[in-house]
C-alpha cells in the first residue's frame, strides 16, 4: 500500500488535562425520564419513514467484527456499503442525482481486514465517499500492553484506514485514574495524527455508573477524540438512549467550555429503523439537526442496513400501490418524494 495517497484530515486537537471538567452529579431517574419522553415522540410513517431510513443509511458505519471474517465477506460488506440499492430502484420515485449519495458513511473492520476493504472500495471507486474504519488497541477488551495497542493503530492506518475506533482502558476508569486514561488516549491521538479520525469507545456497559460515563467521555474529548462511541457491541449492555443522553450532556458542556466539536456514535443494539429514528430524534432535540451528518453522528451496526432496506422497499411498494389506486400521475408522486429527498440532503 506504499503507493496509497496520504491525505491529511481535519482532526480535533489535544487539550490540557483539566480535572474541573470532570465535576458532575447525574440523576439517573431524570435521565431515564427524558430519554423515555423523547423515544415516545419519534413515530413516523409513510414517505417520512423512508426519508428517515435513508438518512440513517448515510450515517451508518457498516460493521463486521467476527472471528471468521475473510477477504470474501469483507468484499461483500463493501459492496453493500457502496451500493445498498440497485440504481434502477430509485428511477420512479427519486431524483437520479441522489443515487451517488446512497451509501453508508463507512465500513468498520478489524485491522487485519483493512487492506481487503481498501481494495474493494477502491475497485468500486468510492474511496472518497465511504470511509474505512478499523477497531484497534486490543478491541474489544483493551487488555494488552500499551505499545502493542499503539502499533495496532499504525498498522491499520498503513493498510488504508482513515478512522480508528479505539477502546479505552476500563480498569483506569473503574479506579478513577482519569489522568492516566487521558495520557493513554493522548498517545492514541498522536498515533492517528492527521491521517485518521479518532473514535473512542467507552464500553459504557463496563463503566459502572453514569457519572463514570460522563467523566470517561470528557477525558477522551480533552485528549483529542473526534467522536465518542458508546460500546464495542460485545458488552452485555450497549447503546441505550439514557447513556446517549449523558454523552450528549458531556459533548454540550465540552463545546461550551472549549469551543471544540465532538461527534457521537451509538453502537451495539441499534438494529431497526425505529431504533435509529429514536436516536436521531434525541440528537435533533439536543444537539440540533446540524449534528445529523456523517462528520458528527454515526451508527455502528451490522444488522441495521437489513431493516433500512426492508423499510425503504416496503415504503416504495406502498407508494406504488397508492398511486395505482388513486390513479395519480407519476410526476406528482415523484415530486413529493423528491421533496423528502431534498430535505434529506440538507446539512
Automatic annotation (TrEMBL):
Q: Which GO terms describe its cellular component?
A: cytoplasm
InterPro entries, per database record: Aldolase_TIM, DeoC, DeoC/FbaB/LacD_aldolase
Which keywords fit this entry according to its UniProt record? Lyase, Schiff base
Q: What Enzyme Commission number(s) does the record list for this chain?
A: 4.1.2.4
Q: In which pathway does it act?
A: Carbohydrate degradation; 2-deoxy-D-ribose 1-phosphate degradation; D-glyceraldehyde 3-phosphate and acetaldehyde from 2-deoxy-alpha-D-ribose 1-phosphate: step 2/2
- Family the UniProt entry places it in: Belongs to the DeoC/FbaB aldolase family. DeoC type 2 subfamily.
Protein name, per record: deoxyribose-phosphate aldolase
Native source species: Drosophila melanogaster (Fruit fly)
What lineage does UniProt assign to this protein's organism? Eukaryota, Metazoa, Ecdysozoa, Arthropoda, Hexapoda
The encoding gene? Dera
